[in-house]
Fold these 4 entries.
Entry 1:
Amino acid sequence: MSADLTAAATALADVPHVPGSPKPDPILVADDVTRRFGGMTAVDVGHLEVQRGAITALIGPNGAGKTTLFNLLTGFDQPNSGTWSFEGRSLGGVAAARVARAGMVRTFQLTKALSRMTVIENMLLGGSAQPGEQLWRALVPGLWRSREDELVIKAEELLERFSLLDKREDFAGSLSGGQRKLLEMARALMSDPTMVMLDEPMAGVNPALTQSLLGHIQALRDDGTTVLFVEHDMHMVRHISDWVAVMAEGRLVAEGPPATVMADPAVIDAYLGAHHDTDLGDDALLTDEVAHELEAEALAEAKVRASAEEEVR
Amino acid sequence: MDWTRIFSNVAGELIAPTTAAYALAAVGLNVHFGLTGLLNFGQAGFMLLGAYGFAISTIAGFPVWGATLVAIACSVVFALILGIPTLKLRGDYLAIVTIAAAEIVRIVGRSTALTGLTGASSGLRGDSYKKTFTDLSPLPDGTTSLGPFSYSNNASNSWWIRIVGWAVVLLACWLVWRLLNSPWGRVLKGIREDEDAVRSLGKNVYGYKMQALVLGGVIGALAGVIYVMPRAVQPDSMGRPMTFWVWTILLLGGAATVFGPVLGSMLFWAALMLIKTVGRDLIPSTVMRAEQIEQFGWIVVGVTLMLLVIFRPQGILGDPKELAINVR
């Protein structure tokens, strides 16, 4: 295992395995980010740092607040409180389009391929610094034609890499679900982002395609792009991520390298519940000590919940 | 039956100033709906504002170019007022706000409090604002016949307004063609498909929607100016029905196409004229009187619009492949 440790994983070797641990070279730093929907706290992250040039996985059971956190960080949702900075620049309350222009580009859990546009049009839309996207300059092709040619070359390279080049002139709506995922990822890369945020890149992708997608994500990291992704597929998380952050009920509950984080009791609790390995038929459970212990635990839990509810009010 | 008269009446509609005005209004609506997906149900409001802006400022002594600038400025302000509160919301809200705002413009225009300015419900007479425009004409006075068409050169329903009107239509078509095939047009198409996706790629969606709303509104205002040239500014003739005829024309020709609105407008008015003239000859007045035949024509328009949306949503010139893909 140690032989094929990546540079990013090596850089993270000395980072303590606790939630909110400081990283040697963080690209994204978030503090006290909360988002409530009515009385429900969807996200309550005290401190989170994401290492530059590494693949960080964000995992957690359903409803843990991973996608909500994504939406907040990329400007698609507004937090109730919190600040975060990207490459030292504060991005709290900044509009989604400006977040993307700052170099943090995201994809969506439900793919947003622009169906009635061709694959190449989809790609070109992702291009940056195209002067022809301004109304007045659009009227004079001489002002944007050369940039357009550059973008076409770049788009074709990316399509080639994602084996979509033969679909160049097809409408995006005619692609399969997996191909749309690929297209969306390729489109996000058109602007050379410093960080890509992938929301469940593997959902609905067939296993054969998964392998090549994994390769693409690792290649991105090797080219110096920071990757943060949300995923449910543990095989994928273990296979490609350098660091894993685990969320449960809106909080960050554990962090660590993929090999060890899965064994963290907090993670197992989050996924399976605290007493998942207790045999309910075991007579030992009937002893007084155990009964008291469980009672005390339940009381403590109820107290925590009550105080949390009060806070909301 | 007098087929030559029917033919020349129908052919006359193809190049009529009204046809040009509606084509232009549909080009403007095409920028809203076809390119950007904005549901503007108040195009008649933009047209009426343009007409008022031009006529009132001409009466106040403005030259033609100045009055045209006033018409454009009115529509820009109107578009900003409509767009600022609604373009951040979902598309349906714009539809509601535009239909209401167009009615407000009409009702305010026809209110007696403004009789001195807008002439209230009787409107502004054509003679009061036409002179500066007809004076620009290089054509000699008199009447010219060209094939079946015979119109005066400069007076009211003239060759001059036809030439200028269709020139503006062609210019607008060129503009849309240029923009449709530019990166700017590509961003608009992206917004039509999925706003959030475009936002995630770093484009300021709100700004683009506003630009489209203003541009289409300005084209609509110019259409209003052309529309009132051979007639008078009558607020009640530029109400909700006008907006829906513009929609019919756009959907008939094909949204998101360059010449769709022009073809749609020609077909629309020619077909209406055909129904009217043939109907008057064939249907005895005991079955339907002349004005009933006119109303019958509009019924046919309504049915056509429904059939179009159901059976050929892409219109005559639209790409069926583009609409064949089920978006949602």
Note: The two ends of chain B are 51 Å apart (CA to CA).
Entry 2:
Amino acid sequence: MTSVIQVDTIQSATSGQKIVLQGVPTGMVLATTVIRNSTRTAISAAYNATHFSGGFTKTTSTSNLVVLATVIGGQYNDGNGAVGIVLDSTTWDWGAAHNYDGSWTKSYTTVQCIGTGYFTGVSAGAHTIGWGVKAANGGTTRPYETLNPNSTDDSRNGQFISTLIVYEIAG
Amino acid sequence: MSRLKVNTIQLAPGSTVMTMNNMQPGFILSSTTIRNGTRSSLSISAYTVIFSGSFTKLRADSTIFATCNVFGDGFYSGNCGVGMQIDSASTWDYGCHYQYDGSWSGTAQTTTISGQCQWTGISAGSHTIGFGWRTFNLSSATDRPFTNFNPNNTASVDTRNQQMVSSIFVYEIAT
């Protein structure tokens, strides 16, 4: 038998406590965290490096994670270099890549990086999500020489901001 | 005005899915992630769906919004009408793009495609969403955005690469 509740407002019964949803449709977004970084940082070539990261809290162990990345670099360096999204500094997802020019003046162009990461089997609680590189052949790499370029790279630039959006999805 | 105070909302015993009616417009009712991490070569054509996957739409009155990140090596056509479709070419949405280089090494760099597409009037139930290219003029079968889908560390491509994974992220949005 179908049970229906007709109500205008649902709110927590306990002040300061969030409502817990159980049994919602698979794919519903349970929580979202936006991680932004607007600090210009010099990037050294490395085999395995995280360029920036941030924390989020997963509300339940049965959900999955989708991570959308838009990362901006200055001064192109490597045409390929295995950019990726990394969970807790160890679990990499390779649903990411970057654009390369290689022929125009380095400081007059911007390296665009995009990605969609997907993680399952992640425990509830505090975690870290990051962006970086890990070359498959064990060599050192960097897609750009600076993360988040600004007017130091080209006086026309404002301060670029890179972003990771973490969606917790009902499983 | 009715107000329900509660700590936990859970599915009724014996039910398989919780239905939410009259949610605020823009509320995300459901999402589906479709991924492909297999490198494959593409033939030239005027219209090809490169990869696809299924999703289930919960309601008839909702909107479908989808984003994608798609990767390839061996740049080829400067433009070719990349986009996404639901079920057939009649729903083709051209909200995708890539920046073409054409001068640097085709294997030592990656063509990155991103897109955001939207559809209304899609029925509830099972559907297939796909990404590919469809030239607007359909007049010649000589295009493709790149030669190979999902670059990896094959020696002929670039040994630095990991196996790249392309994705479509589908949102069902309340209206």
Note: The mean pLDDT of chain A is 94.
Entry 3:
Amino acid sequence: MSESASDVDVVVSAPRRHTARWAAITLGVVLLLFVAVLATRKSAADKQAESPLLGKPAPSLTGTGLDGSQVSLAAMHGKWVVVNFMASWCVPCRDEHPELVKFSQRHEAAGDAAVLGVIFDDTEPNVRRFFDQLGGSWPVVSDPGGRTALDFGVRGPPESFLVDPNGFVVWKGIGQVDANGLDKLVTQGKARGA
Amino acid sequence: MSAILGTAGVWLGLMGALIGAVTLGLGLRRRDDSLLLAGRKYTWVIVAGAVLGVVAMESALLRHDFSLKYVAENGSRQTPLLFTITGMWSALEGSILLWALVLSGYLAVMVRHFRKRATDPLVGWATLTVFVVAAFFFALMAGPANPFRVIHGAIPTNGPGPNPLLQNHPLVAFHPPMLYLGYVGFTIPFAFAVAALVTGRLGEGWLVETRRWTLFAWGFLTIGIILGAWWSYEVLGWGGYWAWDPVENASFIPWLTATAYLHSVMVQERRGMLRIWNLSLLLATFSLTILGTFLTRSGVLDSVHSFTESPIGPWILTFFGLVVFTAVGLIAWRGDRLRSPGSIDSPVSREGAFLANNLLFAAFCFVVLLGTVFPLLAEAVNGDRLSVGGPYFNRMTTPIVIALLFLMAIAPVLPWRKASEEVLRKRLFWPAATATLVVVLCVATGLRGLSPLVVFWLGTFAAGSAVRQLVLSARRQGWRGLMGRANGGMIVHIGVVLIAVAFAASHAYGHSREFRLSPGQSAHLSGHTVTYLGSDTVKASNKTSVQARVRVDGGKVYGPAIQQFPFATQAIGSPSVKSGLHDDVYITLAAAPDQTGGSAVIGVIVQPLIIWLWIGGAVIALGTVLAAWPGRRRRPTAPVSAPVEVETKPEPVGAPL
Amino acid sequence: MKGRLPWLVMGAVLVVALVIGAQGRSGPMTEAQRVKHIASEIRCPTCRNQSAAESDAAAAKAVRDEIDRRVRAGQSDGEIVAFMVSRYGSDILLKPPSSGVASLVWALPVVAVVVALAGLAVAFRRWRARPNVEVSAEDRALVERELERERA
């Protein structure tokens, strides 16, 4: 902003400084950047798949299964485990369930991968009914008080974590999973490990 | 049938707006009055289109016409009549339709109001601007947010009804329309600001004409925001009413700039100064409503209200870009030529106080805007993911609110031009003394905590100043002394003080606890006794609820409930509130009994002075009406300002009506 | 009422009242208060913008319980917050940190206000140095007339 104009003292028309123009141009540039930032943002729903747990050992996960047996993630070492947080009231959980069934059946014979369900804010009878309806025979633990969900940093079902045979979290998925996608992750993981 | 009617309405509105805008544009370019007169008639086409669309939508909702995708997703045969009607604004597409209806209503009133000045280029440009805005919203409905999309394949026999939270309180019928009346109302002042810049006619005449429009829109927005707070208090079950949620912020940010404008416009009227600044505030207010719409409807931010999975984000962002770059471009082009001479003699004067007021409101606006969008900015800069929530906003805005309250106490007694210390000492003594007495009494009765006490002091001080002005004015003019802008404004100030005090008190002195109670058992919290009597299962057409019977203070029985709507995923709690002038007892059913006659978990929240938030809102509404009341007509004060050397016709003198 | 003395007395009374009023809240927080305080700055995982202290969602209760366990186990506030971040990521905190890029959200408003105040100060100095010569008298007359009309 030049001061040269202001020392010319004109009586009728005020000295013309370009304050408004420069302010407007500066603001325009800032707004341009701002709009550019807004235009390149992903939807909030797509952003959460990162997790501080990636590459770290999975939190301990033990509990009583729906059939009354003791279930623990540690006991499944040596396998790829999909830890799946679910609830019967959650519609995407219902939608993804057949995919989990497919995935667990594919790996049943080889025994190289398995699913471990964790109930998120739901009752055991509801979940039992859900499994009776939709199939699936993997262990499902209830999570009274939501401690396990908190340990995994779960924000809402469905969320799935892939835990490698050494017990490290290698992937987190928000929303529905599909069997082929999980297979691909397992294959990739095996290739990396080999 | 509805689909055809509604789609016809949308296209009618879109075509009307586009053809009208082109006609007006040509008329303005060729200075052809007959084109200007013809162009404004398209207003009625736009109104017809919007009304047709709304009628089609409402009739489809009422007739449960599930062949319409919107009705199939937001209506159901079990939903009570009221919530079927409000279903129109319980999802994205319908809310755009409401927006279009409100906008066309404002447009009609504006065109009618200025009918005798239809050939005035200022009015022509303003109408053209509103046409363009209307065209955008109709285009949204013709394109990505089409409310009249039909279902292909089998037509469902029933739908899920509106979101459960939008069908368990009658406030849903009032809060969104009020908010829209405010939000959309800022289009008119924006249009006049654009017109003033384009035509270069910045005399105060246009200001007098549009000031009242801004005041109306501001009043509706204020009521809308407060009703929203009330709704969230009565429905959401956490005992709060303001969470700095992006949607709340989106409605609050333009409110702040509009409030700044309503104050600084007085400096322009009296002193002919701050023209560009005032225009900028109007331009900013409208731009911020569009930005708010983008933030809340595009899904970039997490919010309680966010409309999910909507494809309209890029459209609104493009429109926002268009609006702000038009605004900034106009200011850059015209700004320096329209700057006013004139100066302010002393910071301790009415105009000095208005400058401080504007500085504070601008800072307030900046803090809220920055906090709302910061997660997006931070992520863009280095991929950091972070949240900006209540603790940030509370810490940053508290000093601003305190400074504003102080200004509210001082400013009304300040004379224009210059104030002497003696005048201030004299005029402020009783307000300050009363405030000090109140604080002494508060401390004597055991209230502790620095920030609430400071708010109480400043609040009483500000209210005292306002009351002093009103008393003086009423002594001079009788009941008429309560009307007019300055006096209505003082009543608004009192309402704002009530809200500030209630806010501070409920935040500082609230208590909450959960109790597991068997039938017949009582619990105590902050001097209130809550007795759990039992629970019943209540079936209504649209929901099943477990309702507890809870007796409060040995008196009336309240019924907090957990409601299950058939198509909803999770049960939602529904609080029950015993309101009093002194405090509210807010009761929720945190956990229903496992078996009949078992114990239930009852949540109890006791917060003082909550009801004064709503009373304060009513006082603001009253003050706004009084301020806008057409009193003795003052002539436009155009001559006060120095002549502006831009090629322009002389400002028409005398308000035509 | 016209002199300064009543104001001095009033100021003294106010300061004493506020000093008394500001006390009585000190002293170490109880465990329950600490839990509430920490939870109020943690975002409820399943809700959108409520803190874990306010929300009645199950996940918020889980967060409160976890904080409670850790407070009882003698962990510091910082340790508890760090644990939450290690599980959910930094956006579980409602209050942005005061370091790195996030510190801008704290600093920018302060900078903006300081710049605006400086601008106003410059404007006032300029106004004082070059009083508005051209319209002052006429302006004043008009203002007076307006005032008259308003009083009438």
Note: Chain C touches chain B through 67 residues (CB under 8 Å).
Entry 4:
Amino acid sequence: MIKLIPRVQASEKWGYLSPVLAVFLTVITSIFLFTALGKDPIEALYTFFISPIANWYGITELLVVAIPILLCAYGLALCYRAAIWNIGAEGQLLAGAIMGSVVALQFVDSTSWVALPLTLLGGMVGGMICAGISAFLNLRLNCNETLVTIMMNYIALNTLLWAVYGPLKDPYGYNFPESALFGDSTLLPVMFEGTRLHIGLLLVLLALVAVWVFMSKTFLGFQIKVLGLDKPAAHMAGFKQKKLAAMVFLASGALAGLAGSVIITGTTGQLIPAISPGYGYSAIIVAFLGRLHPIGITLAGLLIALLFMGGELSQMNLELPRAITGILQGLILFFLLSCDVLIRYRVQFTFKRATA
Amino acid sequence: MSNVKRLAMQGITKAYPGCIANDQVFLEIKHGEIHALLGENGAGKSTLMKMLYGVVKPDAGTITWNGKQVTISQPSVARGLGIGMVFQHFSLFETLTVTENIALVLGDQAGNTKTLAARIKKTSERYGMPLDPDRRISSLSTGERQRVEIVRCLLLNLQLLILDEPTSVLTPQEVQNLFKTLKQLTSEGCSVLFISHKLHEVTELCDSATILRAGKVTGHCNPKQETSESIARMMVGDDIAIDNDCQRAVGGDVFARINNLSTTAKGQFDIALKNINLEVKRGEIVGIAGIAGNGQEELLKALSGEDIHPKSTAITFGNTNQAVDSLDPLQRRRLGLSFVPEDRLGRGAVPDMDLCDNALLTSFDSGLVKNGFLIKSKIVELADKIIKQYKVKTPGNHNTAASLSGGNLQKFIVGREIDQNPQFLIMSHPTWGVDIGAQVAIHEAILTLRDAGCAILIVSEDLDELYKISDRLGAICDGSISPFLPPEDLPVVKLGQWMAGDFDTESTQINSTIGAAHND
Amino acid sequence: MDIDLLTNILYMMIMTGTPLLLVALGEMVCEKSGVLNLGQEGMMLMGAVAGFIAMYHTDSYVLGFIFAMLVGVLMSLLFAVITLQLNANQVAAGLALTIFGTGLSAFLGTDYEGKQIPVLPSLSVSQLQDIPLIGKALFAQNAIVYLSWLLVVLAYLFFRYHRQGLSIRAVGEDPAVASNLGLPVMTIRYLCVAFGGAMAGLAGAYLSIAYTPMWTEGMVSGKGWIALTLVVFASWRIERIVLGAYLFGFASIMHLVAQGLNWDISSNLLAMMPYVATLVVLVMLSRDKQKLKLFEPMSLGKPWHRSN
């Protein structure tokens, strides 16, 4: 018999160990999965987890994938700290990409230095508009934030499709659903010659430090934590709940919107329908796996980015569907939630024994 | 038959992580007697009863029922044996009707479902507790809910009725009614197990008693032959002072004024406040008695700022008579308010945060924050100071609020609020569920604060406590408030009438609102 | 607007609303027991792919739907173990279920994209289907539509008249009290979650076998989420779920209406309609927070673990 015994105090140790155990269990499960699919598990594991980052170019590619995921995840973590179940990073990212594109397309032939900052700012504003609508519906009109944000994701996606099929379509693009190519002045400079790694990485580092200082050193960060852990206590203490909630909503919208504009200015160079293979959804997993802590999120984000790359490689080298990435992401989250039981409970194995 | 006991529990032991709830407990009940199980909060009474009713499984020990050893694996087994239980927190579903509640729980034991409603009506009337079987629980008063619970037991072939702290939710008059019903039951041969920590009730009602302290039986007695002191000793042990007489105070000028405060009920389960008039002077303690759910929460929230009424000017603080109705809790704190809410875990303190963070929760204005950044060293200093000054038992300031016992957490919260040098302190149930040691400490802290000139308002269901520390005492019922009198001039019977909404002839206006409340 | 168009709109509205009706019914039962399962989208996708694969290989509609329901149940049990046994946060676990279901269904369905199966035929009642306007909508539907009506009636009677229906409501209101009184809280919750899974699986298979009929990645496109709104819209009452499902069905076929009326609106914008409609409904519903709370099962979404 396995029995769960509640702990007197939540275990700090298992708070850190649980994500590690979850990743470990996911790897074990993936070995079974690969074997069941008739692949050599060692080769498959190598393809999935090692070969994508076996060289310098691979590492820079990993970072390119990780940049938008991390930006989204930092923002989501702020919301989750406040117990606001915002799952709208995907929509906010798309909205950021749309707004960013609108700005960037004004500067196609310009060489002005303001073009790039304005494009990024446009992306942030786009994300904030999307998040702001959700926040308004949630905070003013009492709508459930999870449902609102998921609906906004679908609305943003359809808006993106409408934009690339309609107003933003490249008039000289042979009727492809794509915007015109952006001018050089709106593209993020590459950091290292011969790679695609752009200076969006610096924005990630900036966001990392900002979020970390905000959450652990400031009184606002403290209030957000109280709000998330215990609403009646926050109310009793006189914290301004709606303002705090609106703040984290907008901050996460800005970060996700930034992610969107970083993708179009750093990777694709134009607005296309498939700018995000679900980065905003993966960011949810990253935020949880990283324990809502910026450092943890950074590590988790790199891991999930690795899964994205591993999925691509295994499609090419192992003839496995790319969708395997989604399975592994789901499994990690499941294992994490399961392992988290160890934070609050001790597991006791009891054996049936004759009573004396 | 007569030499076989109704019930014998022997060597009952049950351990939880970190504590032994019951240690080798022995308990015997005869036919047709009312047996008291006495003990402080946390002595293990409820655990013992849950084992008898099959909710919790004992680690060791035997239960003998009418001479036969039995294993009570679940509540339906207990009911099958003729054991009925009324829990302290009622086991009723608000959204279901009386009949549905009873049918649901008794299942096949309820017999023919078509005649159930008629039988509920008949049984309830026979025992002097009339009930309408078709009403929803949410529309019943606390006393009526308790009747539902008791009738649910009576519909069985009842041989033992367990009542867990049944009087804590009743007015003194309702208590007398309950006692009548119980005596009628025992005259018919049914046994009653009466769990309480109120000595005077036990000496009035019970034929025999078992006393628990920290999970162990510390004595058996006939309460009618003992003094309250001797029983109290068995309950609390030798090393704790039981009584400390309090000096009354008259207070100075008025700090908080409430003039004709009326509110509307926001939700189905909320109470509207009706024409509340109340003054609290500096240097006095005003006590408000009342059965839970009569508007205490609403009154306290209106005072603390958790509920804001922007257009009203009914509440004023301080010498300048500044209206505070529209101010949020933070602004009111800056005017000198401190607040100890009823739920200490989940409102007074954040369960999963450590004591440093919980010290910061309401004390952030006392120099702990600079330019929006936290000053960690000062926060730790404050937490340590509260822990030391109020003798909070904890391994350290980084332990979470949830890891503290109720009494220790309450000392911490009271300490935190008092440390802000309030001019007006509001407390809800200051010592509910707290052991005697902590109770004495909290009362001392409150009295010291009063003598330093703070205005103090206390809401409690514990009449003993209110009589002990209040300088003026009144009651709240269905959103209306009674007059206030010094405890010495207020007999318990009169306070009981006030708690039931009968506010004398002090004001015809008040009487008419009460009348209306009782007619619906 | 001619009568043929209106007849077809009514017919399509019911046909399109049926999967929503099924999922919402399952989720409502689940929520009545106090469990909030946000994984409907994932379970529907799994049902859709499983039903399609089974149908593709066996050519049996019955096996297709049964297999889809089994897979839905398995998915929901995964959720149940994590939330009920291991006390995980229900919102997070529901999200995990959706993410997992999305990934796994895409993986399993890779080889079946673009494959064809025969659509589930409609069972017409020969005379009645010719009744003007409503005949086609009510009497020319496929078997699953009729089944959904049967399920609605059964569920209504169950909650109204059966004692186990009372038990579910009691467990949803206060599991601790229910357990103290000896109700099997865990068993009841497991069964309710599993019922929700079966309904989601059935609804998914309806999409891939009876509605489209084909499999494409992510084909449920938010219907699982819309169903969650529907349950709130219906205030946990069965008769209102029917109404809501068909209203959303109507919002989903706006592009057909637009075509029929020769409106010139971007199809991408029309595809947004169900989601915008959901938001509008949410706003209207949520105006009165207190009223909303009145119908919500009181313990909804709160973890509970028997301690003894």
Note: Residues 172-187 of chain B form the longest helix (16 residues).
